[in-house]
Amino acid sequence: MNDLVHHEKLAGPAGERVLVRRSARRRRTVSITRREGDLVIAIPAAFSARQEREWAKKMVDQLVAKESRRRPARRSDAQLMAMAREVSEAHLGGRAHPTSVTWSTRQNARWGSCTPADGTIRLSHQLQGMPDYVVRSVMMHELVHLLVPGHGPEFKALMAAYPQAEKAQGFLDGVSWAKDMPPLGGDDVEEAPGEG
Questions:
Q1: What residue ranges define each of the domains in the chain, with the CATH number in brackets?
Q2: How many helical (H) and strand (E) elements, i.e. helices and strands, does the chain have?
Q3: Which of 68, 19, 59, 21 has its CA nearest to residue 43?
Q4: Within 10 A of 165 (CB to CB), how many other CB atoms are there?
Q5: What is the rounded distance in angstroms from the CA atom of residue 96 to the CA atom of residue 39?
């Protein structure tokens, strides 16, 4: 990485070093990528020092904005427990009483799960950043399971008390479908000077 110049006055969102690589092959585009814990910005070799500083800052700002859209603030487990109480009160007359509600990084095949015997609910970390009504719908689903096993008529009747259940299910079906599709673009942010 000896062709990289470290910008000491600029840092990534988590304090990463910002390194700039000048490329004789680049004519117009500027890109930013993550490499080995650093942010690497590739610019045309013909850029002036001023253009280099301006584009380095612009690309770091764009990456921060892109990543903040991708990873909204995570709710804490305490916030999940408060949400469970709210959903239970509003839609189940306060009958469901979970003992704990936590995020789980071990759930990749389902959105949530519960253990009625001990009253625990786990929500997939993949729900983080999804619309609130979607998270609340999955919460409602698990709360109903604390009261009713299976997905029979009694379960469906209780779930019907959540007005956005069908809309949330449509959203989750779309996410599930999209996960099986190849991504439209990579993680790189690339822009030609003069655009954006």
A1: 4-71 (no CATH), 77-176 (3.30.2010.10)
A2: 5, 8
A3: 21
A4: 19
A5: 47
DSSP 185: S
Identify the three-state secondary structure at position 76: coil
Whether 52 has a pLDDT exceeding 70, the answer reads yes
**Would you say 161 and 144 are in contact if contact means Cβ atoms under 8 Å apart?**
no
Nearby residues of 22 by Cβ (< 8 Å), 6 or more positions away = 3, 5, 43, 44, 45, 47, 52
pLDDT in tens, 11-23: 777 778 889 999 9
pTM of the full predicted structure?
0.57
Strand-pair category, 38-44 with 30-35 = antiparallel
Phi-psi region of 129 (alpha: psi -120 to 50; beta: other; left: phi over 0): left
**Longest distance between any two alpha carbons in the chain, whole Å:** 70
